[in-house]
Design goal:
Blueprint: H1 3-13, H2 17-34, E1 43-47, E2 63-68, H3 71-83, E3 89-93, E4 106-112, H4 121-131, E5 132-142, H5 149-164, H6 173-177, E6 182-189, E7 197-203
Parallel strand pairs: 1-2, 1-4, 2-3, 4-5
Antiparallel strand pairs: 5-7, 6-7
The protein binds S-adenosylmethionine (SAM).
S-adenosylmethionine binds next to helix 1, helix 2 and strand 2.
């Protein structure tokens, strides 16, 4: 799908997204955000923030920027921001494959159910790395295709269908990480059916051996 189609598809879902995908993804999304060990004043970017369904789970003493290319999804996120008085959040209409932020802006860059929903995951992951500080954290909550041949065959068959409704199923974590400076420090299956993975990486661009928050305070390595 191209950018225009992704925008159309997600904007057309925006009225029902929370009722359908909100519920399916809810448990793992909430657990993921609550376990981020966010420091006061941490600068967090949520890529593909959608209807802003995770925003209320972040602590209020951090700064959150949420971007999405769907105006319909973002309009819902703005309603949620106003309803919950989320003054520590700013929301911006932006293509994650071509972000308007300077290099090294954020301590943590988070993408929940996004890398398989974007037209070009490589561009988006490269941009996530660029805007994240060296030694900062990049977190992906997603379904990744695994090595199981039977599951992989089914995923390949249903992937073109899924593309029409805005996501693909045949992308593996190794493919996403290939050629990047990301180092995985945590990888967990997060929902009861074990379908989604929470993957936390340190951004080792420029050879920085950080521990995942850009200033050495988290210290989590699995
Ligand atoms: C499956 S939804 C996930 C939304 C939210 N993160 C959640 O947890 O429910 C994928 C989101 O990514 C957005 N998206 C897709 N491609 C994008 C891009 N290139 N730039 C920014 N957002 C994008 C879609 O508009 C949609 O809101």
């Amino acid at each position: 799908m191209d950018i225009a189609k992704v925008e159309r598809v997600y904007t057309s879902y925006s009225g029902v997204y929370d009722q359908i995908f909100g519920k399916i993804f809810h448990e793992s999304r909430e657990a993921c955000v609550r376990n981020l060990r966010i420091r006061p004043e941490e600068n967090i970017l949520e890529v593909g923030v959608g209807t802003g369904i995770a925003l209320e789970y972040y602590p209020k003493n951090c700064n959150i920027t949420g971007i999405d290319l769907s105006s319909g999804m973002l309009a819902k996120a703005r309603q949620r921001q106003s309803h919950y008085h989320l003054d520590h959040v700013r929301l911006m209409l932006m293509d994650a494959g071509k972000m308007e932020f300077a290099d090294d802006t954020f301590d943590t860059v988070m993408a929940a159910y996004v890398v398989t929903a974007v037209p070009d995951y490589r561009k988006v992951v490269n941009e996530m790395i660029r805007v994240c500080k060296p030694g900062g954290r990049i977190i992906m909550l997603n379904h990744f295709s695994n090595g199981n041949k039977l599951v992989a065959a089914v995923e390949k068959v249903i992937s073109p269908l899924c593309k029409h409704i805005g996501f693909r199923t045949d992308l593996s974590l190794n493919t996403v990480l290939e050629g990047t400076d990301l180092h995985v420090t945590r990888k967990e299956k997060v929902n009861p059916m074990k379908f989604w993975h929470l993957v936390e990486c340190v951004n080792r661009k420029g050879g920085v051996n950080g521990n995942g928050n850009g200033n050495g305070k988290h210290g989590h390595v699995s």
